[in-house]
Hints:
The complex is a heterotetramer, with 2 copies of chain A and 2 copies of chain C. In chain A, 30% of the residues lie in helices and 37% in strands. By secondary structure, chain A is α+β, with helices and mostly antiparallel strands. In chain A, strand 3 and strand 4 form a beta hairpin. The longest helix of chain A is centred in the C-terminal third of the chain and has 18 residues, at 104-121. By secondary structure, chain C is α+β, with helices and mostly antiparallel strands. Chain C has a 5-stranded mixed sheet with strand order 2-1-5-3-4. The termini of chain C are far apart.
Amino acid sequence: xxxxxxxHPFDPWALVRERERQLPLxxxxxxxxxxxxxxxxxxxxxxxxxxxxxxxGMTERELERIVAEAEARWPSITCEVAHRVGAVEPxxxxxxxxxxxxxxxxxxxxxxxxxxxxxxxxxxxxxERLTDGTERWVEQNTPGH
Amino acid sequence: xxxxxxxHPFDPWALVRERERQLPLxxxxxxxxxxxxxxxxxxxxxxxxxxxxxxxGMTERELERIVAEAEARWPSITCEVAHRVGAVEPxxxxxxxxxxxxxxxxxxxxxxxxxxxxxxxxxxxxxERLTDGTERWVEQNTPGH
Amino acid sequence: xxxxxQYFARLREDIGRDRDEIAPTEELxxxxxxxxxxxxxxxxxxxxxxxxxxARLDTPVRDGDEVAFFPPVTGG
Amino acid sequence: xxxxxQYFARLREDIGRDRDEIAPTEELxxxxxxxxxxxxxxxxxxxxxxxxxxARLDTPVRDGDEVAFFPPVTGG
Lengths: 145, 145, 76, 76
């Protein structure tokens, strides 16, 4: 398990490749990855920037719990989770979930499950700054199952 | 759409990153990727190497058709598909499917659908060489839905 | 000792401060008791944590606990 | 002209060659007719293509077509 928070832009593919250098890929036939980026629009409004508030301490504990519960449910998987905090610009990566497994169904299902639980359980809150200068809190994540 | 065949090892994360340099990531909030590697075991047998036979011409047409049909079903997506052919060693990447979309559900569903259709429709055939020197054709892909 | 109470995101802005401290009493037995005592009836979709783990309004609290209140999370 | 017929993977090895060429006749109307004429009853799970697109045993063939027979595909 590896869980990381970044207060600056990070390259998700460099993270995945770096992790794979330490993994026995000859036994892990499947890798499923999700990368979420900041869009410059949301609900028909133009977004200029975003601030990601979080709850230091609880954030790390929640991410580790979510990953640990996925590893208990799909015992063969290996996971990497990263998330931005603080000020974010459009097109920067907000979240990365990577799951390796011997078989594709476990990798795919675990990757989707970790992302959905992260979105509904990990203590992050998005504050958007619109192009007209006003700011607003994002009220709720949409269901993705 | 981009479909590529490689007769030599390729770095899936470099391909994804290279493609992203040409994409408007500020509009594509979600990226779902699957990378399939050659394992050194299959059905309890130790595998030393693999040869991927394919049907030149039909392979490219099938991959392009599969991607085009996914793009028709999920109109917002952008796709990248790569596949190895020829001699492959354990831990090398066999297949890459990357899908970008504004929203995560389309990216995830299209990535899974393209991979499953590729596995059951694109004309590739795996021949495995076991550690005892014998060779065998893989008879059938397992269902992954 | 005391119970510390933290607020996050929109809730912190609405309340106008990022934390409270409160001395435990016999009447303040649960997360919900704390909110009621400080702010009245809880809003819908109020989320809470005790010692950095998700909690409900009926989760018990005791001296020294770190309690947090926040709106629905929106990460990822 | 002729109809060319290609074989792939285990099927190519079992048949012992990678292609046949056959002159079209009135009786050879479908993919299945070609297989029956050359090899007898088709095996279960036989896959076929006409002009590099998936086909069935009842898919019609005509002069100049590129036909292929192969076992279940195992890519990805």
